[in-house]
Specification:
The structure holds 2 protein chains of 2 kinds.
Chain A lengths: L3 H28 L2 E6 L4 H7 L10 E4 L8 E3 L8 E4 L10 E2 L4 H12 L4 E2 L2 E2 L6 E4 L12 E15 L7 E2 L1 H8 L18 E2 L7 H10 L42 E6 H8 L20 E2 L1 E6 L5 E8 L2 E4 L4 E4 L2 H6 L26 E9 L5 H8 L9 E2 L7 H6 L3 E2 L23 E4 L1
Parallel strand pairs in A: 1-2, 1-8, 4-5, 10-14, 11-12
Antiparallel strand pairs in A: 3-4, 6-7, 8-18, 9-12, 9-13, 9-18, 9-20, 9-21, 14-15, 16-17
Chain B lengths: L5 H27 L13 E2 L30 E5 L10 E8 L7 E8 L7 H4 L1 H4 L14 E5 L7 E6 L3 E6 L5 E6 L5 E9 L2 E9 L3
Antiparallel strand pairs in B: 2-3, 3-6, 4-5, 4-9, 7-8, 9-10
The chains are: A alpha/beta, B alpha+beta.
């Protein structure tokens, strides 16, 4: 029989233990950080692999949000965000739940939104609910001037694409502009084209590819798309009337297949082409089948050595590696093993407008992970996708070359440890750490 | 025993409970630290290349050494059976059958002859001029380096017949370096399969021993 004294000892001990255990539990929870990334669909797949849970530091959780999720995505809470759901577009989200950011701009805007939200739920703030904005475009004002950090981790390119048999193999930047401003309304007006009307398509405006296509291929972020007789309005919708996903030709209205022109990420095109046997991954083909959409070339005056010539050459952002028997970006690596391409090897860091304001080849871009210095989990997010931009600074696995094979697997071109300095003065300071990423602060 | 000692005894009990809890948590952390990175090219989860780091961020815990040898993507909705994998000679046919699990589909299979000690988990690692782990051309006439089989609806089982070869070849990579791959009686190789199924793909390495 237990004595009353023993019972009291047990009760007091239990009370101490409860308090102590709750302290231990809360301390443990505080150490576990949940890093959530959202935004661009162009870099969704490659970031899925990079942010795989197996790569996360012990105890932490990495979540890569899919903008195309059709059901709620539940994310566990941490010290800077309560447990919450990211809900698909078209639903009504009650805080702390939020709508899934769809596209680069939406991802960066969400990063700004959570970092300016002082709300708390059961004592937990929301500033850590999104830590990384996946972005295939750049903005000097988004997520926020003064606190935004862009970590470029690979090269991509954007070009025009079509399934039309009447379209030419390549066109100049000037001619591409004429297509989108209604100067040209028929493929036959383009050198190398044959008769057939043109229907302009663009992805939803929050897409990074949309923004980049306007700024770098059409020459202005405020490009105006006129509509006139013989030049129907730009379509932003897919075959069923929904918003047009970028890098997805399979949702173009079948009736428009021979007339449609639309932007496409070359990296995504390569990834899809290299998985052409898989109809659930190859988005270049209509559901009814047929030939896939092809990536159009850009006529440029740069030859294989990067020298200006008097003759415009068809330079395509993607090329077939005959040794590997797979597609890849037409970059310096390909030049090493497959020299002599008549159109040169246009995918170079020098052709990014973040390095040279007037690049030798249009359409080359960095793809980024964007952080915000106001984020409470900035250090953990930096260790996931960033680096310390000082000489010998610590680098994430992504920024130390440890994910080069992954980056190539998804169609993008990995960056070397040595950057290049161009006419953009700041490019000299993008990579002082010898990283395979570039850091651009806004 | 006086009541004044109650808090002391209680505290002792609490300390014991907390110590036990901490030991459990510590052990749990130690076991999960065995998790390894998915990228076979990576030795550590983070890299500090300079001795005089002035970083404002702490280093990531170091992952354990990368496993080497054939890798299989976990939880693939396909199973693989292989006819013969040992005592092989140049020109021998290795027959692989990839069968989709119930309700799944097999869209296609790619097969490459690769180094036996490589752990191939991504496309980029299968590409000869990218990673240097798989041969870019056959060792000899009558043997294969790369076979791709595309399936048709209803996307049932796929059979791949691969003629293995022996020999050694050195070739250039896109980063300017060179790679040498040898497959013979003293250098086991593997047949790496890329298996396509709904909404994804996976990899399976099949060890090959030459007689």
């Amino acid at each position: 029989m237990k004595s009353p004294l023993f019972k009291r000892v047990v009760l007091v001990g239990a009370a101490f233990a409860t308090v102590a255990a709750s302290f231990v539990a809360s301390a443990s929870a505080a150490n576990a950080t949940v890093i959530a990334a959202g935004g661009s669909d162009t870099t969704l797949n490659v970031m899925d692999a990079i942010l795989a849970q197996a790569n996360a530091p012990v105890g932490d959780t990495w979540v890569n949000l899919n903008p195309f999720a059709t059901a709620n995505v539940s994310v566990p809470g941490d010290a800077n965000c309560p447990t919450m759901n990211w809900q698909p577009a078209g639903t009504t989200a009650t805080l702390p739940n939020r709508l899934m950011p769809v596209g680069s701009g939406a991802g960066r805007s969400m990063l700004q939104a959570v970092n300016t939200d002082n709300t708390t739920y059961t004592g937990v703030g929301v500033k850590g609910c999104l830590d990384i904005a996946r972005s295939s475009s750049f903005s000097t004002s988004s997520p926020n001037a003064g606190t935004g950090e862009y970590y470029a981790f690979a090269l991509d390119a954007v070009s025009w694409a079509t399934g039309s048999l009447s379209a030419p193999a390549a066109m100049s930047k000037a001619d591409l502009i004429k297509v989108y401003n209604c100067t040209y309304t028929d493929w036959s007006q383009l050198p190398g084209g044959s008769a057939g009307p043109i229907q302009r398509y663009l992805p939803q405006t929050s897409s990074g590819t949309y923004g980049f296509f306007l700024s770098d291929l059409l020459g202005s972020s405020s490009f105006v798309f006129p509509t006139q007789a013989g030049c129907p309005a730009v379509k932003f919708v897919n075959a069923t009337g929904g918003a047009l996903e970028e890098n997805n030709a399979s949702v173009i209205a079948a009736a428009d297949w021979q007339s449609a022109i639309f932007p496409y990420s070359a990296g995504q095109w390569v990834y899809q082409a290299n998985n052409a046997s898989n109809p659930t991954l190859d988005k270049r083909v209509l559901p009814s089948g047929g030939a896939p959409a092809r990536l159009g070339g850009i006529l440029t005056n740069v030859d294989s050595n990067g020298l200006t010539t008097t003759q415009s050459m068809n330079a395509n952002a993607a090329a077939y590696n005959v040794t590997d028997r797979k597609w890849q970006l037409n970059d310096a690596g390909l030049q090493v093993v497959q020299p002599g391409a008549s159109g040169g090897y246009p995918i170079t860091e020098s052709s990014s407008t973040k390095v040279n304001t007037v690049p030798a080849f249009i359409g080359v871009r960095f793809v980024y992970n964007v952080l915000d210095t106001r984020s409470p989990s900035l250090a953990a997010a930096t260790l996931a996708v960033g680096f310390d931009n000082t000489s010998g600074g610590v680098k994430s696995a992504l920024c130390s070359g440890g994910r080069a094979a992954v980056i190539a697997s998804y169609g993008f071109a990995p960056l070397p440890t040595t950057g290049v300095t161009g006419t953009v003065t700041a490019s000299a300071n993008y990579n002082q750490a010898g990283s395979t990423c570039r850091k651009i602060t806004i | 025993m006086s009541n004044r000692r109650l808090p002391i005894l209680g505290a002792v009990v609490a300390v014991v409970v907390v110590v036990v809890a901490l030991v459990i948590i510590s052990n749990r952390g130690a076991s999960t630290s065995q998790a390894v990175s998915r990228d076979a090219n990576e030795a550590t989860a983070a890299d500090s290349s300079g001795a005089t780091t002035t970083s404002s961020v702490a280093p990531v815990p170091t992952a354990t050494a990368e496993p080497s040898g054939p890798y299989t993507t976990p939880m693939m909705p396909m199973s693989v059976s292989v006819s013969k994998t040992s005592g092989l000679h140049s020109g021998d046919v290795v027959s692989v059958t990839a069968t989709p699990s119930n309700g799944s589909q097999a869209f296609g299979v790619e097969a490459r002859l690769c180094r036996g000690d490589a752990s191939i988990e991504f496309d980029g690692q299968m590409l000869p001029t990218r990673a240097g782990l798989c041969i870019p051309k056959p060792f000899s006439d009558g043997t294969d380096s790369f076979i791709e089989v595309l399936n048709k609806p209803p996307y049932g089982p796929i059979v791949v017949t691969f003629r293995v070869g022996t020999g050694s070849q050195t070739f250039g990579l896109q980063d300017g370096t060179q790679s040498t791959i040898t497959c013979d009686a003293t250098h086991p190789c593997q047949l790496v399969l890329k298996l396509q199924y709904p909404n994804g793909f996976g990899f399976q390495g099949v060890p090959l021993a030459f007689g």
